[in-house]
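Chain A, query sequence.
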Amino acid sequence: MDDEKKGLPEDTSRGEETGLAHHAKAGLPMSRRELALTDPERLALADKVTIEGLEVFANHGVYAAERELGQKFVVSAVLYTSLRAAGLDDDLDRSVDYGEACHLIDEFLRTHTFKLIEAAAEALAAELLSRYPQLFGVKLSIRKPWAPIGLPLASAGVEIIRTR
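Chain A, predicted structure.
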């Protein structure tokens, strides 16, 4: 895919080519331009802020009763970013505040309604990438422990990875 279709700048900004780099020997991208073209397997080598098992009560589902009554969803997220500056400076402002991110996820899923959790995951990933420009990508898992399928199960759900 060419840069014009992805909306990427022709070249990286001065200083950006080293500001986002970890180390070439680690196999990580050396610039935002390279990172934008990174596949999810390579992205998995980046630093991560993780959220596991966040419980959200929201109104999503194919059936009208699910949207009317609501149900529990369990959300896990991996937020891919560089944590080097935050770690070196011991400064939360240089990281992604996972508490703030949890509240954003909760509010987003409670204030929007989707029939499919696939649609909820897509919209939530877009919101996280929009709200946190320092993210390289996100991995989201949304599970329904009370999925109405008429058989016993722990949960049903989706998992997606989206990059810039």
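Residues 1-35 have pLDDT under 50 and may be disordered. The CA atoms of residues 20 and 32 lie 7 Å apart.
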